[in-house]
UniProtKB/TrEMBL annotation:
It comes from the Bacteria. Gene3D superfamilies: DD-peptidase/beta-lactamase superfamily. Keywords: Membrane, Transmembrane, Transmembrane helix. The keyword Cell inner membrane does not apply. The keyword Isomerase does not apply. This is Beta-lactamase class A catalytic domain-containing protein. The chain crosses the membrane at residues 6-26.
Amino acid sequence: MKIALLIIAGIIISLGLVIAIGILMFRREIKKLNPEYIVQFVKAKSGSGNVSLSIKHDDENWVDVNVNEQLPLASTVKIILAIEYAQQAAAGKIDPQKEVRLKELENFYIPKTDGGAHETWIIQLKKDKEIDRVPLCEVVNGMIAYSSNANTEYLIEVLGLQNINHVPKSLDMLKHEPMYPIVSALYIPAQLMNEKNLSKKEVLEVMKNMDMHEYRNKAIEIHNRWLSQPLTDQEKKQLRKTLDNDFQKIWSDRLPRSTTRDYVSIMKKLNSKVYFSESVYQYLDPVMEQIMRNPNNCEWLVHAGQKGGSTAFILTIAMYATDKDGNQTDIAFFANDLTPVEKAKLSRNMNGFLLKFLKDSKFRAHIKKELSILDLPGSLS
């Protein structure tokens, strides 16, 4: 009996060591800084259709990989709302200084569903003094700088969904899907369970077969209900329990989609400073160009902006920059169906990749050489 117990204990200890070593190796792997990882990832995954990269440099189509492939945008779609906000502010349709009660934003806040974005924004707001309201422009800033989904949902109501969905068309974006209330969409599984008394398995089947028109309409209905009847804290807690990995994947896959071709075209418009009126840029630049708040960036950049997005399965980013030598760069990168390791490594190395592209001519040449063979017949020319 003692020998058997010793053997079991030995097995448990050995298993524990294997797990500990595995965790250590995983952490070491994802902590490595290697901008080249982005290049090799695009090469390896280009055939799957789950990665897309478009780069313009000084008006040259530098890299075009799967640029017409529609992929879910995650929070990168918030650029569209920022543009509509700036246009309405410039036209005098909204007042950027109008005060918004933080309580109104809580109607659309589901804790632990946005990577802590909204909470981090609130903490930053209250670091010097206790406040209960902020100007509308700060709500927009929270959407872009901190990626608050609650702020995004609130701004859908302020700006108008129809107006927001007109932006891609007005910018000649050919493959941009309609925006809808993405926080409210999180509640669709719970609503189906409650209203139709369905099991998780049954709800998954219903949602997999639900077309996007019905899905968006359900999200809009929930959004409208929350304006006057938001979820209680207990209901929000229960919702978080419902949103397991299977439901998160469906939600992630159904986020608005577009192409890197479309988003590079937006980046070029923001970068030019001439496409929109001067008054639009006056409201748009402070929101989009968070990068320029770092004094180190001001030493070598004239202007630059970016917005990224992610879920457990997605990583996206769109950025633009003009340096003090006059070089202009516009980049959009979208990836979907990522493993945890891929997601972690992409997140860890994306900033280094962008920075090296902007600063290192040899790296730019290397990228062109490595990825030009992946250009598809339907790509930009």
